[in-house]
């Protein structure tokens, strides 16, 4: 599972641009120069026509620098949901702008802290005149950006969970920013009160769309966690080689060596799990649900452990506000809960294996 030459070139270009442009200012050059927002969007809709492995390269690099860019929420969740819905009219109308970065999208899905489709309580009822629905409900943990142009909402109709396009500025739509532990990834709460929505795909098939999109998002998020954990380890190894205690670098002490070695094993194990999910998404979609559940569980726990070791091995400076260690630790916590905690994905995996065994 070695990266292609094109993927290595993509990684180099992304790292260079992310080093040159900091924070939110990086989105325009990334989308304009390397097409970051449309890597997995088909060429017919203005994208690069790549796959999950290309997205994995992007997400690893974004994770390394704790980038606040909206790629997970817009390029993976929103664009992915449009593609999975099979709604050609909506794809043709919305995807080109999402792919070139001139528009940013959000998928409003979670309720009561859960991404399970059973938790969807937002209600969509047919509106006057037909062809439209009126949606009422509250959506939590929606990945946020300063300007949202495309809003997709999961809501329940008489036929089951369905997916709708809702204008962000429409009547009955309100967005509330929320305070999160991880301040590098903004989230919002969306409140809908009779907001008009256009059905995407087939009424009642939204649950199937969301399951597929969650697997793709877990795969992308796992790659981000690997990139961030790898950077944590790099910074810690560098510090252990420079910090002198009792007349020698602390990295020369056997106990510190063991802890760094254990962290290295965690990073590489997580990388394997994330790679497995990305290859499944591209080559064996039937295996993706299991591979994505494994990747999200393994990578969440690995990142949390390595970020914790980063703080411990840095000592006093690791708990200061000025050092980046706390930012990685907070991202590890937030990413671990996003799209469901590791225990949830292990339960998904166990249930799937149980069904397969019967």
Features of the shown structure:
3 domains, two-stranded antiparallel ribbon, 10 helices, Butyryl-Coa Dehydrogenase, subunit A, domain 1, 9 strands, single chain, alpha+beta, 53% helix, Butyryl-CoA Dehydrogenase, subunit A, domain 2, 358 residues, Butyryl-CoA Dehydrogenase, subunit A, domain 3
**Weakly predicted, low-confidence segments:** none
CATH architecture annotation of the largest domain: Up-down Bundle
Morphology call:
globular
In total, the number of domains comes to 3
- How much helicity do the residues have? 40-55%
Cα radius of gyration in angstroms: 21 Å
Number of H- or I-type helical stretches: 10
CATH class of the largest domain: Mainly Alpha
Largest sheet: 7 strands, mixed
Separation of the first and last Cα atoms: 32 Å
| Average pLDDT rating | 95
CATH superfamily of the largest domain: Butyryl-CoA Dehydrogenase, subunit A, domain 3
Count the beta strands: 9
Q: What oligomeric state do the depicted chains represent? A: single chain
Strand content: 15-25%
Structural class: alpha+beta
């Amino acid at each position: 599972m070695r990266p292609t030459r094109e993927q290595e070139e993509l990684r180099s270009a992304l790292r260079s641009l992310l080093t040159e442009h900091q924070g939110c200012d990086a989105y325009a050059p990334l989308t304009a120069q390397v097409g970051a927002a449309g890597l997995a969007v088909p060429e017919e809709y203005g994208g690069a026509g790549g796959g999950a492995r290309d997205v994995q390269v992007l997400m690893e690099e974004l994770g390394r620098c704790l980038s606040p860019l909206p790629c997970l929420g817009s390029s993976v969740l929103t664009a992915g949901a449009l593609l999975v819905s099979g709604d050609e009219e909506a794809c043709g109308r919305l995807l080109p702008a999402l792919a070139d970065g001139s528009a940013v999208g959000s998928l409003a899905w979670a309720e009561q802290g859960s991404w399970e489709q059973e938790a969807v309580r937002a209600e969509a009822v047919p509106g006057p005149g037909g062809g439209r629905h009126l949606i009422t409900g509250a959506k939590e943990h929606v990945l946020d950006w300063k300007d949202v142009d495309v809003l997709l909402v999961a809501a329940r109709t008489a036929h089951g969970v369905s997916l709708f396009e809702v204008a962000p500025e429409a009547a009955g739509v309100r967005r509330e920013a929320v305070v999160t532990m991880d301040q590098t990834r903004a989230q919002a709460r969306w409140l809908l009160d009779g907001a008009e929505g256009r059905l995407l795909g087939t009424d009642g098939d939204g649950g199937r769309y969301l399951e597929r999109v969650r697997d793709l998002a877990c795969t992308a998020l796992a790659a981000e966690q690997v990139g961030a954990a790898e950077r944590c380890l790099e910074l810690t190894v560098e510090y252990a080689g420079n910090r002198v205690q009792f007349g020698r670098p602390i990295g020369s002490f056997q106990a510190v060596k063991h802890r760094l070695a254990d962290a290295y094993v965690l990073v590489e194990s997580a990388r394997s799990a994330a790679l497995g999910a990305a290859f499944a998404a591209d080559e064996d979609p039937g295996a993706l649900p299991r591979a994505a559940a494994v990747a999200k569980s393994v990578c969440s726990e690995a990142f949390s452990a390595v970020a914790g070791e980063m703080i411990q091995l840095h000592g006093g400076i690791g708990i200061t506000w000025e050092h980046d260690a706390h930012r990685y630790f907070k991202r590890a916590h937030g990413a671990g809960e996003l799209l469901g905690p590791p225990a949830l994905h292990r339960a998904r995996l166990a249930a799937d294996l149980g069904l397969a065994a019967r």
